[in-house]
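Hi! If you just cloned this repository, the fastest way to understand the data is to look at a raw example. We've pasted two of them here, unedited. The first protein comes first, obviously.
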Amino acid sequence: MLPIKRKFSSAIWRLKQVVRASYNGAIKYFVSMCTSRYWLLDYLPAFSDSRPSLLLIRIDLIGDFILWLDSAQSYKKLYPKHKITLAVNSACIELAQTLPYWDEVISIDMSRLRSNELYRLAMLTKLRIACFSVALQPTYSREWVGDMMIRATAAKQRIGYFGE
């Protein structure tokens, strides 16, 4: 009787593994459809906010972020009526929150954004719903994650370098 019970529990365990794998595969497929392949996020409604807002995307590490801070001061002068939001790498969040150059700071965990599909979908949806009128990525050496974030904003004006 014991070998039958062991075989049954082993079969149940295998079935659970298959269900988990297919669930994770379905989630990965859905997120890739929404974000990278067909950009279903483009079809989500982009609401307009009455107050103009600017999104700055700086997802590089702390050294490049510190070098960029000299030019970060001028965004308040260039966009005086805009609410300025900074999307920054989570490695720089403590420094970014202490600076007075922006009104809001969004922390982006880059390793999770690249690897975790649900986190990526949540962050891109958050950027889509925020209703930015201008999205700016002032990085010369861009990467696909930053471009994906810019596209998800559905801002009327999207600015970035042609880059490498």
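Ok, and the second one:
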Amino acid sequence: MNKKLIIKKVNSYVKDKLYGEGSGHDWWHTDRVRKLALKIAKKENADLFIIELAALLHDVYDWKFYKKTVRKNALEKLLKKYKTKDEIITQVLYIVENISYKGGTNKVKMKNLEGQIVQDADRLDALGAIGIARTFTYGGKISRQMYDPKIKAKKYKNLTEYKKYKKIIQL
């Protein structure tokens, strides 16, 4: 298994797929998450290969736009195509499936250090000016008004309720 070649091919695939994507889950978000995750990982003695793959793939076939089976099958097929070991694929898919905040409804606690690192990097990218810009970008993508004082903040009981309100597109 040639890790450098796998990263190079997956990087190219993700960049082609997400470059110019209009929901704030684009190539540049992915690149920032990857760089930050790798920076954190070097201080934590974590598996850099798993972290880089998971960071690159975390928003490809995002759950907000694709059914879970589409995401899992497409990512598994991609990683197998590049001859990634099955145990690596399993770990990467676990991270990708459980990374999202999902409107505060995600109760899964990442069980491995690599997943915790990628999740932290992804959430850090949701802060500050970039995070605010991404929020407005995503709102525009799903046809939300920027501001309406009549709409009150809402807490969701579960992911089904959250998806219904957000009018999330499932392909």
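That's it. A detail worth noticing about the second one: The domain at 3-166 is CATH 1.10.3210.50 (Hypothetical protein af1432).
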